[in-house]
Amino acid sequence: MKIEQEDQHYQAEKAYPLPSVIEDLNKWPINQLYRDKKAFMDQLVAFTQDRLIAQKKGGALAQKIAAVVYKERQRILENPWKVDPPDELDFWGDIRRKMVKGGKLEGEAAQKHYEQLSERILRRYVEEITGNFKISTYKLARILLPMLFNSILNTMTVRKADLRKKLRISGHVEELRSLVDKGTVVFVPTHFSNLDSILIGWAADRIGMLAFSYGAGLNLFNNKIMSYFFSRLGAYTLDRRKKNPFYLESLKSFSQLSIERGVHSLFFPGGTRSRNGALEDRLKLGLLGTAIDAQGAVLERGEKNKVYIVPVVLNYHFVLEAKSLIEQHLKYTGKELYIPEGSGFSAMGILKYLRQFVYNSSEILVNFGRPMDVMGNFVDEQGRSLDTHGREVDIRDYYTSGGKLTYDRQRNEVYTERLADKIVERFKVENVVLSSHLLAFTAFNIIQQREKEQDLYGILRLPKEERQISKELLFENLALLREALQQLEAQGQLKLSEMVARYSIEELVADGLQNIGAFHVKKPLFWNKKEACYESEDLNLLYYYHNRMKAYGLHRLINI
């Protein structure tokens, strides 16, 4: 049974695209930054160098450099990628030889020698990280990407595709647009797929936002087409194999200084894609802290620009990389993940994904959350920070000590943790529950409740007959959970899609089954006609999609 839906969200989206908040692309902060790229990179190297020298952790500069050389040579030998520069071994070999020479120097001569080596290392990292922005490429992407999507979709199916209906936008759009000329917007999205950056970029352009700076995994640059666009559309590279302080400080400095310059930015605070399919509940604090530091630095210079944090929740019925992600999660839970070069992200995979996406009634919803300042206070359309009682807050007070605006690393670290907690909270509130989420959550929890003596891994290995659920049991529990979800929505704790909120249970199940099983060879859940019951062919995938709703604690309502 196919469910065709034309709801109020789509009706509202017919107004898109909205005009750009700033029509002249030459005035966009990201264009001005890269027009001054060399000076920015010089500033970045000097800024990072000062930070490293000031840090006591890791010992003297010579010890820090020696540790970096060791780690980098290990990476090159044990985990090389095709996209790596061909001169890496030569570069690090030369640094090592010069370290030996430095061991024969003393005093100021030795310090100067190691500072020169440090600067050389940092410049190499900065050149690797820093991307570019070309107005001509941006204009080309604006034309080509919608055409490419529509062309692919409409040649793969007889059904005429409409991107406005398939890729949906919701949330605090007008508030967000009003803040562009009052400060710097930092998007902090959930992260489920390598398609996320592209989709957010498309949605941001549709609502008239300016281009933003964002990180793209170095492994994605293996694809020549993606590399061409990423490297000219404001992306900076991220290499998660590099975990030494020189590289990490270079990344953080890049983020902070670009935000200080007013460049709108995006980074995934979870650090990487959600391996288990759940909303992020623990965030990486590194890049998030750069927004805190950037706001303080702007205020110390006497400037009025504010930094605005905007949570963005991406809502998928089915995820391109779900199978490989959940397998990684189950295999490496509690361990540091090895990041494979391919990441299960192929051109053929994308084509298949898009075909299933348009063939079914599926949609992807990009929901722009309520804007906040860097302290987690909501802001109004004038950019004013408001406390929980609606009273205006002066953000300078957070950075003031002894009557003066000052930088305090430990204080800012506390602020970063608070902001992370607020973003996690907003992810739950801005999340839109889709039919596939509710269906998977209900089905997996029914199976889990029946097998209380089994641990998770035992449940995932259950035989065929124990993966079956009667129609009556499934529908009864769906009704219970939907009622609870409607109460949570009324309390402002989450959002429901039209299908979940208003359609019958039978229609909800049909829509959920159609979407959750569209892309995967083995179905997370399907209707077994022969045995007249619902059944899972792949409990790993059912578990993955079930996790999207686990943050709300509704598993306790399951009644078997």
Structure characterization notes:
The chain is 50% helix and 11% strand. A hairpin with a 4-residue loop joins β17 and β18. The N terminus is likely disordered. The chain is built from 22 helices and 18 strands. The two termini are 27 Å apart. The protein is of the alpha/beta class. It is globular. The longest helix is centred in the first third of the chain and has 23 residues. The strands form five sheets. Strands 1, 2, 3, 4, 5, 6, 7 and 8 form an eight-stranded mixed beta sheet that branches. Strands 9-10-11 form a three-stranded antiparallel beta sheet, with no helix packed on it. Strands 15-18-17 form a three-stranded antiparallel beta sheet.
Compact summary:
This protein is α/β, with parallel strands linked by helices. Helices cover 50% and strands 11% of the residues.
List the SSEs and their pairings.
Elements: H1 8-13, H2 29-35, H3 37-54, H4 61-78, H5 88-102, H6 107-129, H7 135-155, H8 163-166, E1 167-171, H9 173-178, E2 183-189, H10 196-206, E3 213-217, H11 224-230, E4 235-238, H12 245-260, E5 265-266, H13 286-300, E6 306-315, H14 322-332, H15 347-359, E7 364-368, E8 372-373, E9 378-379, E10 385-386, E11 392-393, E12 400-401, E13 404-405, H16 409-430, E14 432-433, H17 435-450, H18 456-460, E15 468-469, H19 471-490, E16 495-496, H20 498-502, H21 505-516, E17 526-528, E18 533-535, H22 539-546
Parallel strand pairs: 1-7, 2-5, 2-6, 3-4, 3-5, 14-16
Antiparallel strand pairs: 6-7, 6-8, 9-10, 10-11, 12-13, 15-18, 17-18
